[in-house]
Amino acid sequence: MANRRKPDEEVETSPLFSRKAEVTARAGHTLAAHGMLPDTAYQVIHDEVMLDGNARLNLATFVGTWMDPMAQRLYTETVDKNLIDKDEYPATAAIEERCWRLLAHLWHAPSAKNALGTSTVGSSEAAMLAGLAMKRCWQKTRRDAGKPVDRPNLVMSSAVQVCWEKFANYFEVEPRYVPVSEEHLMLDGYELEKYVDENTIGVVTIMGVTYTGCYEPVEQIAAALDQIQADTGVDVPIHVDAASGGFVTPFLQPELAWDFRLPRVVSINASGHKYGLVFPGVGWAVWRHVDYVPEDMIFRVAYLGGEMPTLAINFSRPGAQVLLQYYNFLQLGRSGFTEVQQSCQDVAKYLSGKIGKMDAFELLSDGSDIPVFAWRQRPGYTDKWDLHDLSAQLRQRGWMVPAYPLPDGLADQTVQRIVVRNGLSMELADHLLDAVHDSVLYLNGFASPMPKHGRAGGGFHH
Predict the structure, then answer these.
(1) Are residues 177 and 306 in the same domain?
(2) Among the three residues 286, 303, 329, which one is the final residue of a domain in this structure?
(3) Is the pTM higher than 0.85?
(4) Structural domain tally of the chain?
(5) 32-46, 298-312, 372-386, 445-459 — which is least confidently predicted?
(6) Could you say which of 300, 329, 358 is where a domain stops?
(7) Are 239 and 215 members of one domain?
């Protein structure tokens, strides 16, 4: 009789959405005097983030938004690992080294054994490390020659990602931006001699320009620097910002020479959480040889019972994403990465082909490099709306497609860009095309602003 159920009127009830924590207004900037049950706290946060957009429909970000269930399981099991603690987590540390040596080989380092690399929390940290290594190497060369080291500069396109502006600011390097133009939409070596001098610590090239997704011609830029060296004696290294392209080019354009096959390329960074297909955040920095990283940048830290060499700006950082990167290398292999990236590019070219045929638009890129493309409004099409209006209409339909000005040199022009990531299927692409078409009709005054729910199959047959 001890397990006899209480009469219904004696049973304690606590309906989730009627609990005090759910029905009481909460101050957002002060810590409450008392806590709440775990499942209530979970529900409060779960409900609030429902207001966010659907990550799968976010075509603005390069950052991965999907991994398979086994990867998610591995993530859950390893989220407590702190990568800095190599003494406590030696297996994770060994896998980190395995990953960057694999990338050194993938990017054609002369010897993966003599290369050097590290994981980072993203490409921004990797860029800081690469830029700092170039600055320190330049300073050493100048000091050995008895020359001043107080005016370093870094040459790059005006289309670089903001992390390079941060590097120049934080580490006191003069940024020299080469403006884009209609004839030169990216850094291509044209008039490079006007920007490079004996104080140039390096030239940054981009494999996957943020604005358009296009590759800068690294081999052509290297040839221009070869000519500058022949004419002036100034020897300038190249860093390749391959935040996106580093995980695309080896599989979709393996014949393209952009990496350590070019002797002038001394370092490369890439984002594992972009086309490396990992949840954020993990990045990678790899140098063609240990000699390109000054010894004074490597710290040997006594920590938790061991001594560990560290090459990083961050100290504590997650180990789980490094393990997820290795999971992708194991699970996909070369053929799997090729299949995923090819599928993304197929969708990008399909979308760009359809959008490029619309009277309202003209393409700046079509997804032939990384699976990213951009378009602008065709001159003279209309003065009643612009791409910001189109972006707002697409957002009402659930799609996040940004509109923004081009960099210096073309800043008076606005473009829209779509990033195709793993998870954007042809079926979803058709629905997106319907949304673009309906939005343009509405902006032109011919249709309702409301999405058409339950619409059959899609296609772009209008």
Answers:
(1) yes
(2) 329
(3) yes
(4) 2
(5) 445-459
(6) 329
(7) yes
Q: 364: Cβ–Cβ under 8 A, 6 or more apart, which residues?
A: 185, 212, 373, 374, 375, 376, 415
Higher pLDDT, 386 or 15: 386
pLDDT for res 25: 54
Burial letters for 253-283: b for 16+ Cβ neighbours within 10 Å, e otherwise? beebebbbebebbbbbbbbbbbbbbbbbbbb
CATH number (domain holding residue 395): 3.90.1150.160
**Domain hosting residue 263, numbered range:** 74-329
Question: Per-residue confidence at 309, pLDDT binned at 50, 70, 90?
Answer: low
What tokens appear for 112 in the block?
Answer: 């993966």
* Residue 126 phi, psi (nearest 5): -60, -40
Residues 320 and 306: beta-carbon distance below 8 Å: no
List the strands of the sheet with 372-377, edge to edge.
Answer: 361-366, 372-377, 414-419, 403-405
CATH of the domain at 234: 3.40.640.10
